[in-house]
Amino acid sequence: MEIILFVYLFVCIIHFSRSVSHSEVCQWESFRPQCPKNDHVIQITKAYFGRMRSGRCLQPSVNYVNDMIGCNSDVTRIADARCSGRTSCVIAIPDKELDNLTSCRADLKSYLMISYKCIQGWLGWVGLGRGHARIQGRVKVEKGQMIVRLRVENFTC
């Protein structure tokens, strides 16, 4: 069996922006954030999945609806992994991974409440193919910037 080493270096350098967008994503809808400028990437700031409150996705129709609100999970880490640092992403509801994390009863419909902002950034990667590789280098960031993701992976076939 031949082993192939792939090294991908993924660096995103960003400037922070102040404008945060909020979305409620109901059952059978998708979260599809869009940034207005081509040199911007998505940064997830907060995400919850469950039954947070009455609103667009949860409309009270019976007296006991308030007893079925308040079960939710912080899914910021998952949404961040799927969307942050990218120019686009999609999270469709229902979502099996998110469904497994909520503390709500299985027969109740949950929704996604998510906040994000578009930040100016640079997205790039370096790939090496067959064999072993060693990469040395420096990443320089300007004042007010930070590295949000650096990833090195090994793949075997």
TrEMBL record:
Membrane-spanning intervals of the chain: none
Gene3D superfamilies reported in the protein's UniProt record: 2.60.120.740
Signal peptide (UniProt feature, chain positions): 1-19
The entry's keywords: Signal
One Pfam match: SUEL_Lectin
A GO MF label: carbohydrate binding
Keyword Signal on entry: yes
Keyword Flavoprotein: no
Domain SUEL-type lectin: 34-118
Name the UniProt record assigns to this protein: SUEL-type lectin domain-containing protein
Species per Swiss-Prot/TrEMBL record: Helobdella robusta (Californian leech)
Record gene name: 20202362
